[in-house]
Amino acid sequence: MSVPESKYMSPIWRDGIFNGRVAFVTGGAGSICSMQTRALVRLGANACIIGRNVEKTEAVAKDIATVRPGAKVIGIGGCDVRKPEDLKAAADRCAEELGGIDFVIAGAAGNFIVPLSAMSSNAFRTVMEIDTMGTFNTIKATIPHLLRSSCPRVLFISVTFHYTGVPLQAHVSAAKAAVDSLAVSVALEYGPLGVRCNVIAPGGIADTEGLSRLGSAAPETLKSYNAAVPVGRLGEVKDIADTTVFLFSEGASYINGEAIAVDGAAWRRQSALPLGVSHEAKYPDFLLTGEISKDLKDPRKEKKAKL
Predict the structure, then answer these.
(1) Keywords for this entry (predicted)?
(2) What backbone torsions phi and psi does residue 153 show, to the nearest 5 degrees?
(3) Is the pLDDT of residue 47 over 60?
(4) Mean pLDDT over residues 68-75, rounded?
């Protein structure tokens, strides 16, 4: 599943800027984090990607390794970010096999469309555990290795929903608000030790798992979404990967503790974005009628179909 370089990285970066560096990426087999990792490896880094699905994680790792001759990419599947022992074992293996850890991306996340009225305590807790506790567990597992690096960099993947509040996303808004706060704590407490920690908050990114779960695939809805974004388009995985390269580079050496929205200013108009509903739905009508879009991807149905 070879991916053209133009898909995941702009041609502005100098070859080899990450030579000798090692990246540790949770959610690394996902549609966004895999492209971030791909860009880092293309520019000289080796990497270890973490995921729960063993087969998928190992396959994506092998594919990422093809972007640069001699690249080393480890795929560690069967790792649950909710379990500190899983992450510690993965971080230790990464450091042992690749020589250390310089860059960390905490990208494992869970999300789905649901109103508060239909959300169970278990559903809310699950997202908090994956997104918030998973990020906490990631930094705890990797910080001993990061402190041995000459250029320790940390990046958390967040959202913009909690900036304004978004219907049908109470669980993720709460979880990612905590992630943003945690990043500030890492920046303040480990900044004096050389660690830089920042946050990327992607907007709607085309052809990704996240968008397929949160936004209707109907052409009219996508057209409506694009029209509501000030730059007039959905984001691309390259937008997130390029921002990642910049934040891990020396060009961002004075950026620490910041949350950067990479969304074309979409969050400034979030009330106009058709998240979880069809393009003709209006607030608060869809809440009062319960008319959530029928075109959303439902991972629960997929799992049942496979059984």
Answers:
(1) NADP, Oxidoreductase
(2) -130, 135
(3) yes
(4) 98
How much is the pTM?
0.91
- pLDDT of 43 > 70? The answer is yes
For 176, residues 6+ apart whose C-beta sits below 8 A from its C-beta are: 131, 132, 158, 159, 161, 162, 201
CA–CA distances in Å: residue 165 to residues 110, 124, 177: 18, 16, 11
Residue with tokens 């009219």: 220
Give the type of residue at 212: S
Catalytic residue (one of 34, 149, 173, 176): 176
- Determine the Cα angle at 300 with ends 281 and 48, to 5°: 105
Query: What's the sign of the alpha-carbon dihedral 59, 70, 142, 30?
Result: negative
**Which of 158, 173, 216, 293 is an active site residue?**
158
- What pLDDT band is residue 270 in, cutting at 50, 70 and 90? confident
Q: Please list, in sequence order, all residues whose beta carbon lies within 8 angstroms of the beta carbon of residue 305, skipping any fewer than 6 positions away.
A: none
Specify the pLDDT at position 276. 67
Share above pLDDT 90 across residues of the chain, in percent, rounded to a whole number = 77
Q: What are the residues whose beta carbons fall under 8 Å from the beta carbon of 11, sequence distance 6 or more?
A: 5
192, 168, 50: which is closest to 109 by C-alpha?
A: 50
Is 176 assigned a catalytic role?
A: yes
What number of helices (H) and strands (E) belong to the chain? 13, 7
